[in-house]
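Reminder to self: keep the SMILES exactly as supplied, no canonicalising. Ligand is flavin-adenine dinucleotide.
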Amino acid sequence: MSTVNTKPLIQLKAIQVQSNIEIAPSVFVLSFPREFTFRAGQVLGLGLSSADDPRLYSIASGEKEPDIRILYNIKPEGHLTPSLAQLKPGDTLWITPPFGNYEGSNEPGYWIAAGTGLAPFSSMFNSGMGGNKIVIHGGRTLDSFYFSNELLEAFGERYVRCCSQQAGDGVYHGRVTRYLEKQDNLPEDQKYYLCGGAEMVMQCREILMMKGIPFNNIIAEIYF
Ligand SMILES: Cc1cc2nc3c(=O)[nH]c(=O)nc-3n(C[C@H](O)[C@H](O)[C@H](O)COP(=O)(O)OP(=O)(O)OC[C@H]3O[C@@H](n4cnc5c(N)ncnc54)[C@H](O)[C@@H]3O)c2cc1C
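Structure tokens returned for the bound complex:
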């Protein structure tokens, strides 16, 4: 009788947690020293032991920064994130090498995210790719606009916060999808990067295509 090997195929490597800070209710930024190169937009796997089935996370820090930062939220019934949130500086964590083809570019375009889906765009921004981008970030509450101070400073009016459940100064009251539906004259020759849960990504893609954006100009990363 044959058996199925459920162990991860990629060898995990131990690293030491540098910091693990709650930046909004149940949302954390985890950091550890960078000992590898990666391309902004890539992900890596995290586990609590070498035998763990790793979960995937976008790298949120820049390509040249000394630390790797991961932006994550706790899934209360989840296998990894409730324990991940308990980690303290010096604790051991297991990581895969970075991988993935979701990559930033220096071409003009839109970065459209929901929730922690902002992470790859944070990496692209911190890697110097933000100069010609428009950032559209969706969150349920006003405290879900992670890194908003630095984004406001860098992007000004090119940084749009869409809040579905609360109204706030300078914040669009509604979902990202509604904001996109109301936009006219979105340039058809620019790239539209999407990142978030499956429903948000699929709805945004559909809206963009209805507005004439070619399929090939819509580049999506789905968190599942
Ligand atoms: C390419 C990619 C990149 C990603 N990047 C990020 C990122 O940057 N940041 C981020 O926060 N996440 C990211 N994710 C999601 C991440 O990989 C994990 O799926 C997420 O953090 C949940 O992990 P977990 O082990 O805590 O939950 P899991 O154990 O995987 O559970 C997932 C969901 O199932 C529910 N669930 C699990 N068990 C039960 C049960 N017994 N009964 C009821 N419900 C249950 C949980 O509530 C949770 O909602 C990414 C995913 C992909 C695919």
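Points to follow up:
The chain is about 15% helix and 30% strand.
The pocket of flavin-adenine dinucleotide is lined by residues 43, 55-58, 71-73, 75-81, 116, 119, 221, 223-224 (CB under 6 Å).
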